[in-house]
Design a protein that fits this description.
heterodimer; A: Rossmann fold; five-stranded parallel sheet; 8 strands; 60% helix; B: Rossmann fold; 2 domains; binds guanosine-5'-triphosphate; binds magnesium ion
Chain lengths: 505, 468
């Protein structure tokens, strides 16, 4: 048994039990080390989610002695069950031995013996039958008195294990085999096996005693009519008679009353003994054996039907890893490593010294404060270029104005991405105009709202970089929200002061 | 067509429109590529594949942004005599410019020619500009089915309607709105259906993809509800036995219990993040109190209850000693009542057993400390809120999920807790907080868990969906 290898864990039920044990171990905080490896393997093996969970558990198992612990538990449980059976035999034997005890007159009360041997058994069986429907309603698998031996057994098992892994294995094993349908039928099978063994023990001792000693069976009553006992006996032997055990005729029964007028006929001892043995078999062992078989079949059935509760958090969390929505392929067409320019220095820009100004908007909506912006009186409006054609014609117009002392103001939206397309547009503007050129970036508030302050500042830097690369003067790049009338007014006031100061200098 | 041929889908568009974001959301992979607000973030073609039937079947290609479509178009004009659109693109790919300034655009076009269908991603906040037309013209030359995908449609600045109109005027009608940050499974479905309509030979593959995604979505919701139910059962059934007279013991034990519940909630949040395949750092539960790097909203502050519209009443008896959120179960059943109860239902052994033990403890001066009902309501509300926001969170989201200040209404307010939770209160052995490794009555706990799960699913379905 010591060399229990993972391959032993082979039936679907055992595989599920193993997965359940892993779930408990992982939930209790001890995450196994090489889960990634087992998970990758499980994904590669494919199948539905449960299959993958089981494969993962199996994969984890190879590196730990959990399967060995589970296997050991199963062995221990089997040993315990056999112990119970042996105990049953002994108890049954002892019960029969103490019951078949002739009184001082050398007589044995048949019904007394029968009740002593079969009474508790019948009561226990009835209790089991009655509790069966309740055990389906999700409550305990069996009522406490019936469960008690099992729990004692569980405690014995728990005491036997040592180490964290073993303890978790044990609790998983108990949880799975001790609850639900598995618990119900497992416990029932154990119970019936115990009783069958006890009845077997009784039968053996009874037969032994009947062979080696002499008993005179009688029946007696104080207040009941004799007829009741005679009838009862006749009814009682209906069933054993089918087994060929029980052939007491009416005279023999009547004659077997304690202190009867006539002594019982010679065949009476055999007849009563046969009835006793027959009753033990027909009313004890046969129903118990039948129930045992049914329970074992049901146990097997419920083992086959046992499924992991995959919605429990311990399993559910594996879903994205075991059933990934996608698998990375990787980089197909790599970047040769283009050079990335440095962001320009952010600093407050200003408009070029006052002259006539031409204004050109690039890919913007007309600003809230009107178009062209009221930055320069009498500005030349080159329009807003939403596409290449408009831009071309605007640049044509700009070229035709080159004989005048003109400065160009290009208005872009900070919200737009400063990409190479825009960079080309800026270069084209620069190329089309010889005079001073300025870039105004509007929509700062909107951009900050979209991107957050940090990313917005980064974007400003990117715009400066491409503008400078296109030949703009860093000092002539300004950020000003044209949708914001107040900001525009403030800028103009400050600008006028600057211009005035500049003029005086 | 060979059933195993993979479908190749190229994601193209101007820079910064959210191409990489779209990929992350479609693949549920927060680690795919690089996303930033700066242009030109993606500089290579990177591929990933959607799993269908457990195998990679739909390849998605993330491409760099088309930045300089004007130059591209000008160059393609020069190759007018080279044949049809595809030939002209091939000619361009062979040119020097394709290795120089238009290197990234060339990458995109190479991938376009190697794909079955194009998803053209648009930032719906922008107006339709000349460059969009240029880009569509260039892509049109490749003669591949093209589906415009409007991103940022959850934004207040979205111009979805205008875009649809513009696109319709140039013959593009199968337009899909898909916000990659504000996820909506219905939009994802419409996206795949659009591809399905364009590529009839791959109808079955896409149908399978749609169905698997739908099933995964259902499973996700069910698992999330079960995860929350597990937390609630753990918290509801947690019980700590203390001696009534010992004020100090009462206090320290209740602090202990509060700490366990907080930890348990953190674990639940981690499990949920894992379940949804998000990073666990991506959640912040309020800034109320962040202690040594860990987020923390004090579940047990009276203010928390007030915010959820609950009053801190039930714990008030022992309030000073115990603090809000923990109940001391002193009575529950009086001596006389227990005796009569015990006598009447004497037949049921286990009942006697249970009450008997309680009775005995009561006589010895022990009481039970438990998490009170309102705290359970707050826990449920917070977790439901988290699940709700995770269900609507695209894997492209860069922001953190916040358990918001103005909390949704706590569930079961003014009504009894669900039966499953009330049952849990009588089963301290169900709690992994106070009875780890207790002799398991697994089936019972599981039955309660699943009943509560259904109830939570119900709550989730009924949750009002705030406008974006
Ligand atoms: N609010 C919001 N932001 C989004 C959405 N989609 C993308 N973003 C943001 O937009 C920016 C650009 O996203 P990316 O996915 O990097 O765009 P891309 O098209 O791949 O960009 P490049 O690779 O640079 O061409 C990032 O800051 C994203 O967070 C969306 O639907 N909503
Ligand atoms: Mg990208």
């Amino acid at each position: 048994m010591a060399d229990a290898s993972p391959q032993r864990v082979s039936t679907p039920f055992q595989r599920r039990l193993l997965a359940e044990a892993w779930r408990r171990i992982e939930e209790s905080g001890g995450s196994p080390v090489d889960a990634t490896h087992a998970e990758l393997a499980a994904v590669a093996q494919g199948g539905d989610f449960e299959t993958r969970v089981l494969n993962r558990a199996q994969g984890l198992a190879r590196s730990a002695d959990l399967p060995r612990a589970l296997h050991g538990l199963q062995q221990a449980a089997r040993r315990a069950a056999w112990t119970l059976v042996v105990a049953g035999v002994l108890i049954g034997a002892a019960a029969a031995r103490s019951t078949l005890n002739p009184d001082h007159a050398g007589l044995v009360n048949f019904y007394w013996v029968l009740v002593a041997l079969l009474g508790i058994h019948t009561l226990a069986m009835l209790l089991w039958l009655v509790s069966l429907p309740f055990s389906f309603s999700g409550s305990h698998p069996l009522p406490t008195p019936l469960r008690a031996p099992f729990e004692a057994l569980a405690r014995m098992l728990a005491a036997a294990v040592s180490g964290n892994m073993q303890r978790t294995a044990q609790s998983a094993w108990m949880a799975v085999t001790g609850s639900g349908a598995l618990g119900r039928w497992g416990l029932s099978a154990l119970l019936h096996a115990f009783w069958l063994a006890a009845l077997g023990g009784m039968l053996a001792v009874t037969l032994l005693m009947l062979s080696a000693r002499q008993f005179d069976f009688v029946w007696e009553t104080t207040i009941l009519p004799d007829e009741a006992f005679i009838r009862l006996t006749e009814r009682l032997q209906d069933l054993p008679a089918r087994l060929g055990l029980g052939s007491l005729d009416r005279e023999t029964i009547v004659a077997s009353r304690r202190a009867a007028e006539r002594p019982p006929p010679p065949g009476a001892r055999r007849g009563w003994s046969a009835l006793l043995v027959g009753s033990l078999i027909a009313y004890g062992m046969v129903p118990r054996a039948a129930l045992l078989v049914i329970s074992l079949l049901m146990l097997r059935h419920s083992r086959g039907r046992y499924r992991l509760d995959l919605e429990l958090p311990g399993y559910a969390r594996l879903r994205p890893r075991l059933l990934p929505a996608s698998r990375k392929i990787g980089i197909i067409d790599a970047d040769p490593g283009a050079v990335d320019g440095k962001a320009g220095e952010p600093r407050a820009g200003r408009l070029p010294a006052a002259r006539e100004t031409a204004v050109l908007g690039i890919e913007i909506d007309p600003p809230g404060t009107g178009w062209p912006p009221a930055l320069a009186a009498g500005a030349q409006d080159l329009g807003i270029a939403a596409d290449r054609a408009i831009l071309e014609s605007a640049l044509q117009r700009l070229k035709s104005l080159q004989d005048r002392p003109l400065s160009l103001l290009v208005v872009c939206s900070l919200a737009a991405s400063p990409d190479r397309g825009i960079a080309r547009v800026l270069r084209d503007c620069r190329a089309a105009h010889h005079g001073p050129i300025a870039l105004l970036l509007t929509h700062r508030a909107r951009t900050a709202l979209r991107l957050g302050e940090t990313a917005c500042r980064e974007r400003e830097g990117d715009w400066r970089r491409i503008a400078i690369a296109a030949g703009f003067d860093a000092a002539h790049i300004l950020v000003l929200d044209l949708d914001d009338a107040a900001e525009l007014r403030d800028f103009l006031l400050a600008h006028d002061d600057q211009q005035g100061a500049g003029g005086r200098a | 067509m060979n059933a195993e041929t993979r479908l190749r889908v190229a994601i193209v568009g101007h820079t910064n429109t959210g191409k990489t974001s779209l990929l992350r959301t479609l693949t549920r992979d927060v680690g795919f590529g690089e996303i930033s607000a700066r242009p030109g973030t993606t500089r290579h073609v990177e591929a990933t594949s959607l799993m269908v039937g457990g195998r990679p079947r739909v390849d998605l290609y993330d491409t760099p942004g088309l930045e300089d479509s004007a130059a591209l178009l000008a160059l393609l004009e020069e190759y007018r005599d080279r044949g049809d659109g595809i030939d002209r693109i091939r000619a361009l790919l062979d040119s020097a410019a394709a290795r120089g300034e238009l290197e990234q655009e060339a990458k995109v076009l190479r991938q376009v020619l190697a794909s079955d269908v194009l998803l053209y991603v648009i930032d719906a906040r922008e107006p339709m500009l000349g460059r969009h037309r240029d880009e569509l013209t260039v892509l049109g030359l490749a003669a591949r089915p093209l589906i415009p995908v409007l991103n940022f449609t959850g934004s207040a600045e979205s111009r979805e309607a205008a875009w649809r109109e513009h696109l319709a005027r140039i013959g593009l009608h199968a337009v899909v709105a898909f916000d990659t940050v504000l996820f909506d499974p219905a939009d994802e479905r419409r996206l795949y259906e659009a591809v399905q309509a364009m590529l009839t030979p791959r109808y079955d593959l896409l149908q399978q993809l749609i169905e698997e995604r739908e099933a995964a979505w259902q499973a996700l919701q069910r698992s999330a509800a079960a995860t929350v139910a597990d937390l609630l059962i753990d918290a509801a059934s947690a019980a700590r036995r203390v001696r009534e007279e010992h004020a100090a013991e009462l206090k320290s034990e209740s602090a202990w219990l509060q700490e366990r519940v907080r930890e348990r909630e953190e674990r639940c949040i981690r499990q949920l993040m894992e379940l949804f395949a998000f990073r666990s750092e991506d959640v912040v539960a309020e800034r109320l109190a962040i202690e040594n790097g860990r987020w923390r909203m004090d579940l047990f502050a009276p203010e928390t209850l007030r915010r959820f519209g609950l009053s801190a009443g039930s714990g008030a008896v022992k309030g000073a000693a115990v603090g809000v959120g923990i109940d001391v179960i002193t009575g529950g059943l009086s001596l006389g009542m227990a005796a009569t109860l015990g006598a009447t239902i004497g037949a049921l052994w286990s009942t006697v057993d249970r009450f008997g033990r309680k009775l005995l403890d009561r006589l010895r001066g022990y009481v039970d400390l438990r998490v009170d009902e309102n705290t359970l309501r707050v826990l449920a509300a917070r977790e439901l809120q988290l699940v709700d926001s995770l269900l609507r969170r695209g894997h492209a989201s860069l922001g953190q999920v916040e358990l918001k200040r103005e909390a949704a209404r706590a569930p079961w307010q003014g009504a009894d807790l669900p039966v499953a939770l009330r049952r849990a209160r009588h089963h301290s052995e169900w709690s992994t907080l106070t009875a780890p490794g207790a002799p398991a009555r697994e089936a019972e706990r599981a039955a309660a868990l699943h009943a509560l799960q259904e109830e939570l699913l119900h709550q989730l379905a009924g949750a009002p969906r705030p406008a974006a």
